[in-house]
Hints:
The strands form 2 sheets. The protein has a 5-stranded mixed β-sheet with strand order 3-4-5-6-7, sandwiched between helices. The chain is globular and about 65 Å long. The protein is of the alpha+beta class. Helix content is 34%, strand content 11%. The longest helix is centred in the middle third of the chain and has 28 residues, at 198-225.
Amino acid sequence: MALSITSKPRQSNTTSIGEIQEIEVFRRFDVLSDSSDHHYVNANTTTKHTGVDCFTNLSSGVHKKIMQEWKILEKHLPDSIFVRVYENRIDLLRAVIVGAAGTPYHDGLYFFDVAFPSDYPSRPPHVYYRSYGLRINPNLYANGRVCLSLVNTWPGRKSEKWNPNESTVLQVLVSIQALVLNERPYFNEPGHGMWPGRIIWEKRSNSYNEDVFVLSCKSMLFLQRRPPKNFEGFVAWHFRERANVILSACNAYTSGRARVGYCPTDGSSSSSPIVEVSDKFKGLIAQLYPELVAAFTRSGASRETLIEQLKVERKSASYKGQVVVKKKVKSNSGVARRVLGKLKKVLGLKKKSGKSSSVKKKTMPS
């Protein structure tokens, strides 16, 4: 999703009763003071090496180079990347990348903590992915490790590795977005797709995309529960705005009306199944769907809008036990019934007495 200059989210604070207050425009680049939850907050502070002074010495080459990086980021960041730097810790920065349309990462938020070494730019910056314990990509490990030639954590040709005279942090972030969080991440793994048998590799890639989308949905839940510091309002705003598209994608993917990663940005899809979907994927999304609805509602997504969407999805449902509100659901496993029950509880829906049921909206609490 691209954010235009005229429609930027506002940065928000959370009050003692959990209400979100919008206080200012959330800029793509900004300078802050609180770096307390940064992964590298203790880096460059415990060593006695004299090079540490380079971060506070205004005349040092390292300080000047980092200031140049700030200017590049402020001027050239794409709409889908947001960066925060710290006035009292210029060696640290935090970036969030919005997952691109046409990939299984679409509409997700992916946070990276970056630290400049004391001899920067002789060595590349350290990059840590805030994974919440999930490995969503062959290059992004559950422990936060980022494998990328540009930061010298993965083998590559000389032209692909860090060049102290030319490489920048902006290039690192754009490389992660374009080369790592891409359309078919399965092929990021060395050796995948190199041998004959294109059909089998494509099947494995599609299956991997299903796994990635499930993990991305889990990441959305973790982010809304524990958003990184200084991004609380942005996280809430983002998922409030994208809730309908994400939920529509869940339904389109599980019904086979769209291949994972290829759901149109407006939430539309084919009216009939066009791809095969694994039972494993259907079951996992069925478990996550009510949790996503609940999280989006807490972030401020319109409950009435979600209910209307469920009505639309009910009409276009095409597979047995789909994760949408239906008048009648027949499923021996009982999974669909449990999911529908959770959805109705989340959205404040009641069953009327009698053989059939209908959707009824509750008034939202003030």
